[in-house]
Structure formats: structure tokens, C-alpha cells
């Protein structure tokens, strides 16, 4: 980096002394540097964005009144990405915790589509289970009611 700056004729370079920063800030700087590299896999990228976002929210606050907030908009500006892209990356990184097989997808787009399919399947399965439970409950209640009515007629 120094050689490149000298080649460009720069006489000054902004720098942060690593000895002057805490562990949290050091981790943030490492992640920011890694995100600027072009050779990250999509899995590494979304995980780095999620971790960086969580670290910044830890440092600057989130939605607590009276505190500075670190928002998706802040992350968008710092990483030069659309807010929707930041949001999707963070959701995808979280999804990798639940569906590790998403990492097998070749692209972020393919992983996102698979994640949405997995979530839709989970929702439909839960809806079907609830329908069966409620339907079974109605049938059971109807049987009890019919049995009760027959018993009272017999008396």
C-alpha cells in the first residue's frame, strides 16, 4: 500500500495505529478491509456484513432511545451498497445458521431463492399441521356432542 501511494505521488496517508484501538474496533477494521477485497465468496461476504453490522450496532446502539443508532442506512453508505442489499445479505447470513446447505449454492441469488423456498415450505407445513389439528379437534368435538345428545335422549 505504501509503495502504491508513493507511486501515485501521495505525500500523506490516513492511518490508524492499531495500538490505539480496542479489540472491537480492530475487528471492525478487519471486516471492512475484507469486504473491500474482490475475492470473497458470497458466503464469506454475507457473514462478514452480518458480523460487521452487529459489531457496529453493539458499539453505536440500535433502536434504544437516547443512543446513537447504527442503521441499515449507515451500513449502506459505508459499504456503498443498497439498503435492500444489506438487508438481504444479513437475512441470508442468518439463514445460513438454520439452513447450512444454502452454502452449497453457487451464487447468492440462488441461495436466496432456495432460502425463500425453504421458508415457504416450512410455513405451508405448519399451516397444514394446524389445519389437521383444528380439523381433528372439530371432528372430536362433534363426536362428543353427538354422544352427549344421544345420552341425554336416552334418559
**Residue share in helix:** over 70%
Treating each run of at least 4 consecutive H or I residues as one helix, how many helices?
Answer: 6
Please give the largest β-sheet: none
Radius of gyration from the CA trace?
A: 27 Å
Strand-pairing-aware structural class: mainly alpha
What general outline do the C-alpha atoms trace? elongated
List the secondary-structure elements in sequence, H or E.
Answer: HHHHHH
How would you characterize this protein structure?
- 71% of the residues lie in helices and 0% in strands.
- By secondary structure, it is mostly helical.
Short description:
The protein is mainly α. Helices cover 71% and strands 0% of the residues. It is built from 6 helices and no strands.
Main traits of this protein?
single chain; 155 residues; mainly alpha; 6 helices
Topology, please?
Elements: H1 2-7, H2 23-36, H3 42-60, H4 72-79, H5 83-98, H6 108-154
